[in-house]
Amino acid sequence: MGKYRQYDRAFKVEAVRQVVEDGRAVAAVARDLGINENMLHRWKKQLTDQGQDAFVGTGHLPPEQAELQRLRRELADVTEERDILKKAIAVFSGRKK
Q1: What is the pTM of this model?
Q2: Quick one: which of 1, 11, 37, 85 could link to 30 by a disulfide (CB 3.0–4.6 Å)?
Q3: Right CATH number for 1-57 from 2.60.40.10, 3.90.1150.10, 1.10.10.10, 3.40.1180.10?
Q4: Alpha carbon 53 to its chain's center
Q5: pLDDT digit of tens for each residue in the chain (97 aa)?
């Protein structure tokens, strides 16, 4: 099974720049760089949609996704704390009866 080739952010941005700013055809740029046309189309869309947040790298999330992940973790923690307090109240109020 073949290994995936990884491209750094600068390479991707330059490839997209050649298409957008220089007006070159996607097929020509892809052929010159030895990459798949569909990959270059995907990079172009990512850069257009995400701007500076595009191509953050493996294991890194765009700021919005990182914030969403942090908030979900915080919500899970607060929900767990609430459930513990509910159980504690039930235990202590049951003993007083």
Answers
A1: 0.56
A2: 37
A3: 1.10.10.10
A4: 9
A5: 567 788 888 899 999 999 999 999 999 999 999 999 999 999 999 888 887 777 766 666 777 788 999 999 999 999 999 999 999 999 988 865 4
**Two tokens, residue 83:** 């459930």
Tokens encoding 15: 């490839």
